[in-house]
Write a structure and sequence with these properties.
- The chain is an alpha+beta fold.
- The chain is 48% helix and 15% strand.
- It is built from 28 helices and 20 strands.
- A hairpin with a 3-residue loop joins strand 18 (665-674) and strand 19 (678-687).
- The longest helix has 33 residues, at 462-494.
- The protein binds manganese (II) ion.
- Manganese (II) ion (MN) binds at residues 48, 72-73, 139.
Length: 714
């Protein structure tokens, strides 16, 4: 375990201006927070964040990143809170720790996901600051180094698979090749131990046979290059078992057939020297066809630059050679982190290196030279996307601004068509809410629900929009068909003709209509009149004067009212289910509020309902709504009144007579208390609005057998 002073020393070595006091405080804070927690290895838990910080010092990362590494598990695994971290270490570190914590939570959620590519994009999109991702990778690296201590084999394999599918490719994408190689090798050992062992055994056999082959080839290459005037540092290594295994898989060959298991690196001072070294090597040794690649003139998307070639080398062995400048080598090894190394060379003065990834990308975009290593186009692309989870952990990727309705349609058209509400991270939210990265979305559906035209105003995906439009068109067509049918029926009736499908089928072609319903729709839409259809079926009718056909304009004019009737309440979320509360029985004319209820949509209460007190500290569930005064009467609502009635013959009779006289209809009656002298009872009455109910109450008060009448509240 690294000691406190060692860690601080390391940081001070490459950054003399680092805040030593802050690092010491982070060390102590984390150690105290983790307290007696233990790792699976039996080590104190604190050894883990400390090792993670140690890994990051190898990449010479700034003090904030090192402190973040020390603190990275405190919010998730201890009693420490983010506000506490902010008050002790400031906003920047709190933000970084928060970022790492969020990634760790995603990790938990993603156990079942098989969409590795989407998950990698999600991690990139969520790591708004690249340092968050660097801490996460170092965290994973240390967890992999200690993987063997986890006793459950299934868990070990899951972690190894996830590393192989998610974290190793991520490390590669941001150019951290050393971390990528180590992650892959440990995961490979867990997932394919036999394959790895046999490759290692074979490598050992070759070593035993050939002696120090790598050393001899390195020396000869180095000497020859220097003799030819190229100042080069040559290093050689065996390829990693996993990269050998991959090549065997890709080319479908056995280990014996795979000849180049050694790779050599030639590091020089300038790009000119790269090509001079290449010229010498190609002139001196037989070239293996098809192996030459020039990543200097065309760098890889992650910024990697090098010349690659394959030759039959000094010892008659097939070898791979990578030629690059020392600067390119740094970038190849350190990836994104090399950014800090170069910045550091230029001095640590302005703190510009600590910016959000977005800004880092801007700098990179406008800079030329060796710093242009980030896969910036791709990273930027992900910033326009949002990635959300289904309850089963599947990832759905959508354009930024997508809503639960888009999500529902992305899951399945049927889910979209029938969605009534959405739970985002377990809370009922409006369907128009913009989703954010990592949200878990559960769509509430109802068979009775159909797509609402209002959804079209807020959806952003093409699929959702197309489905909603299609449905609206279908619905419109159904309306046209119904309207057309009644127009045609009326036209026929007025002339005392029977309307038969058969008669209409005979004239379909003259109206260019494939079916009878299409013909009705054409009439409903106003393209032809009922009279025209009648004339086509009975040409002799043509002579008669046009009867009083249904005016289309009139039929159309009736429609807005119909539409208003459908929305008696303003301020509702389109598509959400609506209930009237059973406690206060709101009536048209009452002041009302909506309460959004998980899984149930909106419940409407009167503003003075006692039940509302229970929601006083949940303002996010309150919905400001009002009756739509422009809407037509939308039918009867149930009002509830409580009464005290004298227990005497005929009193119940007079009660029901009074209500009936006032056009109320008793829907339910319940006697709550029955004493010798009185009944106390609750009556539910169907009324038009609050005024109607008041009239009934007034009439009841005037009835002698009734002692008191109140509207029931809550
Ligand atoms: Mn950790």
């Amino acid at each position: 375990m690294i000691r406190q002073f060692e860690l601080v020393e390391r940081v001070k070595q490459y950054d003399p201006t680092a805040d030593e006091d802050m690092l010491n405080r982070a060390y102590v804070f984390s150690m105290k927070a983790h307290g007696k927690q233990l790792r699976a290895s039996g080590d104190p838990y604190f050894s883990h964040p400390l090792e993670v910080a140690g890994i990051l010092t190898q990449y010479r990362l700034d003090a904030s990143t090192i402190a973040t590494a020390l603190l990275h598990d405190t919010v998730e695994d201890t009693l420490a809170t983010l506000p506490e971290i902010e008050s002790h270490f400031g906003r920047e570190i709190a933000r970084l720790v928060d970022g790492v914590t969020k990634l760790s939570r995603l990790e938990l959620q993603s156990e079942q996901t098989t969409q590795a590519e989407n998950f990698r994009k999600l991690l990139l999109a969520m790591s708004e600051d690249i340092r968050v991702l660097l801490v996460k990778l170092a965290d994973r690296l240390h967890n992999m180094r200690t993987l063997a201590h986890i006793t459950a084999p299934e868990k070990r394999r899951r972690i190894a698979r996830e590393t192989m599918e998610i974290y190793a490719p991520l490390a590669e994408r941001i150019g951290m090749h050393a971390i990528k190689d180590e992650l892959e090798d440990i995961a490979f050992a867990e997932l394919q131990p036999d394959a790895r062992d046999s490759i290692l055994a074979r490598l050992k056999f070759l070593r035993d046979q050939g002696g120090d082959l790598i050393g001899r080839i390195t020396q000869e290459l180095s000497r020859n290059l220097v003799d030819n005037g190229v100042d080069a540092t040559v290093s050689g290594r065996e390829k990693t078992p996993y990269s050998i295994w991959q090549k065997m898989q890709q080319k479908n060959i056995t280990f014996e057939q795979l000849s180049d298991v050694m790779a050599f690196r030639v590091a020089v001072d300038s790009i000119g020297d790269c090509y001079r070294a290449l010229g010498f090597i190609h002139g001196r040794y037989p070239v293996v066809p098809g192996r030459f690649k020039d990543y200097i003139s065309t760098p890889k998307p992650n910024g990697y630059k090098s010349l690659h070639t394959g030759v039959i080398g000094p010892e008659r062995q097939r070898i791979e050679i990578q030629i690059r400048t020392r600067e390119m080598h740094e970038v190849a090894e350190f990836g994104v982190a090399a950014h800090w190394i170069y910045k550091q060379g230029a001095g640590w003065r302005d703190g510009r290196q600590y910016r959000w990834l977005r800004e880092l990308l801007d700098i990179l975009e406008h800079a030329s030279g060796p710093e242009e290593f980030l896969e910036h186009t791709k990273l930027e692309m992900f910033q326009d996307q949002v990635f959300c989870f289904t309850p089963k952990g599947e990832i759905i990727s959508m354009p930024r601004g997508a809503t639960p309705v888009d999500f529902a349609y992305a899951v399945h058209s049927q889910v979209g068509d029938h969605c009534v509400g959405a739970k985002i991270n377990g809370r009922m939210m409006p369907l128009r809410t913009a989703l954010t990265n990592g949200d878990q979305v559960e769509i509430v559906t109802s068979k009775a629900q159909t797509p609402s035209p209002t959804w079209e105003r807020f959806v952003v995906t093409g699929k959702a929009r197309a489905r909603i439009r299609r449905f609206v068109r279908m619905q419109q067509r159904a309306q046209y068909t119904d309207l057309g049918r009644s127009i045609v029926q009326k036209a026929f009736r007025q002339e005392d003709h029977d309307l038969t499908e058969k008669a209409l089928e005979g004239v379909l072609s003259s109206f260019n209509a494939p079916t009878v319903d299409d013909l009705y729709a054409i009439v409903g839409e106003g393209l032809h009149t009922g009279r025209e259809i009648l004339n086509a079926v009975f040409p002799s009718e043509r002579a008669k004067k046009p009867a009083n056909v249904v005016s289309l304009a009139k039929a159309r004019a009736a429609k807005p009212a119909e539409r208003d009737m459908a929305v008696p309440i303003r301020g509702l979320i389109p598509g959400m289910a609506v209930h009237f509360a059973g406690c206060c029985h709101p009536l048209r004319g009452d002041r009302i509020v909506g309460i959004v209820t998980t899984g149930k949509g909106v419940t409407i209460h009167t503003i003075d309902c006692d039940t509302l007190e229970g929601f006083a500290d949940m303002p996010e569930r309150w919905l400001d709504i009002a009756w739509n005064p422009g809407a037509e009467d939308d039918g009867l609502h149930v009002g509830r009144i409580s009464l005290v009635v004298a227990n005497e013959p005929g009193s119940l009779g007079s009660l029901s007579t009074v209500i009936a006289k006032n056009l109320g209809n008793i829907a339910n009656l319940k006697i709550t208390t029955r004493s010798r002298d009185f009944f106390e009872m609750l009556i539910d009455v169907e009324v038009r609005d609050v005024k109607h109910l008041s009239n009934i109450i007034a009439a009841l008060r005037a009835t002698p057998a009734i002692n008191s009448v109140e509207r029931a509240r809550g």
